[in-house]
């Protein structure tokens, strides 16, 4: 067995930030309801607070929680997301955002990418989210990675778990040099040569809907929870931030997806904190 107490990373603490925004969803609303439910599952007495990487998240101050942003329906929502992330990053801390739909990843990266050069963005998703626009909305949850790449906010985009690549998004991936790893050819992380700083964008629909049914776009044939955790544990640091998006409580009929989201969150925090 691994030694019990890990050395902690010499980086600022992770800071949770809820972003209850779902008006850029193309099919169903609901992800705006997610942040408090993920927190409730994270702090549930049903499990202890120690991650699989042996970090005790119950230690006071080991991570912070900045609460939820308000009035995310207003036209200046992206600007306020960008400012809130800037405040966290400028304080030397690391944002861990709870969505919300995937459109929020663009303002988050606008803020981080301007401050931290050379980011490798590791993106778990059933979808490449590379549409130039979707049904006329350039800020659709189907388009954030097109915006991020055209603005050159990251050095590399590596997508894992994709199983919906159509011709348009294939063209977009080629245009921007995206490294797309589809479910039928999952990569060995060691061979990808990933280097820090790493940012994780985790769409809950990367997981098979058998594991996480509380999502807007069911796409069978996805990652198991264990496969996703194995990838997370395999990432070499430093991890400078993460977002966990697209959990839709409206479809989480038995409440399991909230717990799966909290488990993914726990393990992300654990790998951010370990040395
Ligand atoms: Mn998705």
Description of the molecule:
29% of the residues lie in helices and 17% in strands. With 275 residues, it is α/β, with parallel strands linked by helices. An eight-stranded parallel sheet has the order 2-1-3-8-7-4-5-6, with helices on both faces. β4, α4 (144-150) and β5 (156-162) form a beta-alpha-beta unit. Manganese (II) ion is lined by residues 125-127, 203, 205, 217, 246.
**Mind telling me the CATH class of the domain at 14-118 and 195-273?**
Alpha Beta
Kindly state the number of beta strands.
8
Q: Strand count, sense and closure of the main sheet? A: 8 strands, parallel
Number of helices: 7
Oligomer: single chain
User: Which H/E pattern describes the elements?
Assistant: EHEHEHEHEHEEHEH
Query: What class do helices, strands and sheet pairing give?
Result: alpha/beta
CATH domain fold name of the domain at 14-118 and 195-273: Arginase, Chain A
Unreliably modeled segments? none
Strand arrangement in the largest pleated sheet: 2-1-3-8-7-4-5-6
Rg from Cα: 17 Å
Q: What percentage of amino acids are in beta strands? A: 15-25%
CATH-level-2 architecture of the domain at 14-118 and 195-273: 3-Layer(aba) Sandwich
First-residue to last-residue Cα separation: 18 Å
């Amino acid at each position: 067995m691994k030694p019990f107490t890990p050395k902690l990373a010499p980086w600022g603490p992770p800071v949770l930030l809820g972003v209850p925004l779902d008006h850029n969803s193309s099919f169903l609303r609901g992800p705006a309801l997610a942040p408090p439910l993920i927190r409730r599952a994270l702090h549930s007495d049903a499990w202890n607070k120690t991650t699989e990487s042996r970090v005790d998240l119950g230690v006071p101050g080991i991570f912070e929680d900045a609460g939820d942003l308000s009035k995310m329906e207003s036209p200046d929502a992206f600007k306020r997301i960008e400012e809130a992330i800037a405040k966290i990053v400028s304080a030397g801390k690391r944002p861990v955002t709870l969505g919300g739909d995937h459109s929020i990843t663009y303002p988050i990266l606008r803020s981080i990418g301007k401050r931290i050069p050379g980011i490798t963005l590791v993106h778990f998703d059933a979808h490449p989210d590379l549409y130039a626009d979707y049904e006329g909305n350039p800020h659709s949850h189907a388009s954030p990675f097109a915006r991020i790449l055209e603005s050159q906010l990251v050095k590399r985009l590596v997508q894992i778990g994709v199983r919906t690549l159509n011709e348009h998004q294939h063209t977009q991936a080629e245009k921007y040099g995206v490294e797309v790893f589809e479910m039928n050819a999952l990569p060995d992380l060691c061979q990808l040569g990933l280097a820090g700083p790493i940012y994780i964008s985790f769409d809950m629909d990367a997981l098979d809907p058998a594991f996480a049914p509380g999502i807007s776009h069911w796409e069978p044939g996805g990652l198991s929870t264990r496969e996703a955790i194995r990838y997370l544990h395999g990432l070499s640091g430093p991890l400078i931030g993460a977002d966990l998006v697209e959990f839709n409580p409206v479809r989480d009929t038995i409440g399991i997806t909230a717990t799966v989201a909290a488990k993914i969150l726990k393990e992300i925090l654990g790998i951010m904190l370990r040395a």
